[in-house]
Design brief:
CATH superfamily: Acetylglutamate kinase-like
Strand content: 5-15%
Order of helices and strands: HEHHHEHEEEEHHEHE
Distance between the termini: 41 Å
Helix content: 40-55%
Number of domains: 1
Radius of gyration: 16 Å
Shape: globular
Strand order of the largest sheet: 3-7-8-6
Number of helices: 8
Length: 209
């Protein structure tokens, strides 16, 4: 719970000058529920719904920590996102619809809000291969969306298996040329550094400069 408070502090410190939308994933809890549901015979549609519900519960936890700085409701549609953001308060959301990862939801939110995107995950950037599986994987400072798509080709696309980034999210980033930085979100201060333009993680660019 202390880490949620640290995330809230970082987000609030930046929200004085910018409109902030935070998209929370389901994490390990969602993966556990999805695995259990799949073992019991649930369809992928149902598994996606379970993951969405868990991501929204995580959004509620962050809302509790943000207090009056955030809009008190979690958007369930993009129309809600736009409406809540008009308040000027921080908006916190989880997943939106089955078949779409929270990464894709975040990319769509950035597209709708004409915003930059910081992807806080469990690695410190994009590697030439999965660093959890390949000890020889090398970290990349800059990568194009097309290169990222090739690197992640073959990753799972079932509920709970979106890995670093799913193809739908990358396609949205590519078509809208959304600036994105991928950082290690296990340390909330990495998010702070990314938001303040410091060199960290991996920068995803439309094309090589």
């Amino acid at each position: 719970m202390s880490k949620i408070g640290a995330y809230a502090k970082v987000v609030k410190s930046f929200s004085n000058r910018n409109q902030i939308v935070v998209v929370t994933g389901g994490g390990s809890i969602a993966r556990s529920y999805v695995a259990a549901a799949r073992e019991l015979g649930a369809s992928e549609f149902v598994c996606d719904q379970i993951g969405i519900h868990v991501s929204r519960l995580n959004a509620r936890l962050l809302l509790a920590s943000l207090g009056d700085s955030a809009f008190p409701e979690v958007p369930e549609r993009f129309e809600d996102l736009v409406k809540y953001a008009s308040s000027g308060l921080i908006v916190v959301m989880g997943g939106l619809q089955p078949g779409q990862s929270t990464n894709a939801a975040a990319a769509l939110a950035a597209e709708a809000m004409h915003a930059n995107l910081v992807n806080a995950t469990d690695v410190d950037g994009v590697y030439t291969a999965d660093p959890h599986k390949d000890p020889n994987a090398k970290k990349l400072d800059v990568v194009t969306a097309e290169e990222l798509m090739r690197i992640l080709a073959g990753d799972g696309i079932k509920a709970g298996e979106y890995a670093l980034m799913d193809p739908v999210a990358i396609q949205i980033i590519r078509r809208s040329k959304i600036p994105m930085i991928i950082v290690d979100g296990r340390d909330p201060m990495n998010i702070d550094k990314a938001l303040h333009g410091k060199r960290i993680g991996t920068k995803v660019v439309p094309v090589r400069g």
